[in-house]
Amino acid sequence: MADNKKAKKLLVLGTASDVGKSIMVTGLCRILSRKYKVAPFKAQNMSLNSWITKDGKEIGIAQAIQAKAAGVEPTAEMNPVLLKPKGDRTSQVIVMGEPYADKSAGNYYDSIEEMHEVLRGALERLESEYDLIVMEGAGGAAEINLYDRDIVNVGTARITEAPIILVGDIESGGVFASLYGTKALLPEDISRNLKGFVINKFRGDPAILEPGLKQLEDLTGVPVLGVLPYYNLKIPSEDSMAIRKKKKIGAGDEQLNDVDIAVIRLPRISNFTDFEPLERIAHVRYVDLDDHLGNPDCVIIPGTKNTVSDLLDLKESGMDAQIRKLKGRAAIFGICGGYQMLGKVIHDSGIENGEEADYEGLGLLDIETTFGEYKKRTIQVQKEIIADGPIFKNIKGDEIWGYEIHMGDTKTPRTVFGDDGSIDESGTVVGTYLHGLFENENIRHALMIYLAEKKGVEYHPEAVTTEEEAYDELAEVVESCLDMNKIYEIIEAQ
């Protein structure tokens, strides 16, 4: 357990975005938690997907996953700065779990010294409680144009003087050059703390790489700690890199149920991890606004970082008309911002779109939403299913769990989950503020049973991999492929 000694640290950096830093940290948190009390940490995260802690703070979903893998409760200290891109080069800045401001990149960097102090304070609080802090960088570590204002790679490395592991992605090509080049470009005070390389996403026999691994070690003096295989993850995606790769999930997989679910890929989509549980049991399509929607069995309008702007884009593209035509033929769900769009009107005082105005919604639910103040509701909740209708009739009275992250207040005459959400008279158009809805097994099964019966196909319930099993499976892969004895030596040498 933690004592008065300074907590040990380990920093995982990457040669680029989406090389596997988050997954590496998640696996290490699971493995190392057997010996240490471990906390994850990422000074600054830019992500479309966020999580609400028990005390109502908003952090990047990756740090919540890493904390759970370590067997500890996620807190705001684990991700003190979260940037949520809103488009037009602007991001909402979340500091210690609370909305701070909407800022452009240039304006954000003007306050970077203040952010340095925030992360120092967060680290101090984590050090007082944990034995080991496993830290994650962002993007590529050798962004030489950002060294003077970086807090997450070079900044974290300098503040902590932590030993560093550098991860490269072989699937993208050029992994040896990217590892070598990153080390060469890192400032000397950071480079000397680089203790190991890891190669990720390899498809094939690692023995083929041996000559290259030996040359890399000879050239840099840094050992290769292991080669991780390409791995089918069973934990939520972290950021925008993942949504770019989503087009149709499950195509050609005969083990999936023959149900077609279309998720509208809004330009400012957020928390698309809401739908990943459905990807295990149905054919899920992510449909761009200029695509033909077709005839899905279910269409979902997801959350968004700007409801009004995405509603206007939805209308301009004609996707709103495509969705309306499906009423009575398909189940229609709106989550968070998607829920607000399903209503009759949105009253914006100017906090969403910059000026006071009313915007007509899709008119599929009898609701009105008002954006009256720059105030976000962030809370974990448990609710009772109170709705009738063909989807929820067999689970009415059940409890579900979820979390809310939204601005705006919605009035409805007919709720779905306790005091939340709305449902139409047919029971097939549903809106809710609850993120994580489809993580509830009873909700997934009720929806799939309804969709399968309506389509006349069989529904085969999924063989559920629990969250704990998913973490253990990932840890087994990481532990079997990395030189964990060397990693323990690196940690203990501090």
Describe what this molecule looks like in 3D.
- The chain has 494 residues and is an alpha/beta fold.
- It has two domains: 8-234 and 470-492, 3-Layer(aba) Sandwich (Rossmann fold); 240-455, Class I glutamine amidotransferase (GATase) domain (Rossmann fold, 3-Layer(aba) Sandwich), CATH 3.40.50.880.
- It contains 16 helices and 27 strands.
- The chain has a seven-stranded mixed sheet. Strands 2-9-1-10-11-12 form a six-stranded parallel sheet, with helices on both faces. A four-stranded mixed sheet has the order 3-6-7-8.
- Helix 1 (21-32) runs parallel beside helix 2 (61-70) and helix 6 packs parallel to helix 8.
- It is globular and about 70 Å long.
- The chain starts with 7 loop residues before the first strand and ends with a helix.
- The model is unreliable at 248-253 (pLDDT under 50).
- Catalyzes amidations at positions B, D, E, and G on adenosylcobyrinic A,C-diamide. NH(2) groups are provided by glutamine, and one molecule of ATP is hydrogenolyzed for each amidation.
- Belongs to the CobB/CobQ family. CobQ subfamily.
- It comes from Methanolobus zinderi.
- Residues 11-230 form the CobQ/CobB/MinD/ParA nucleotide binding domain.
- The active site is at residues 336, 435.
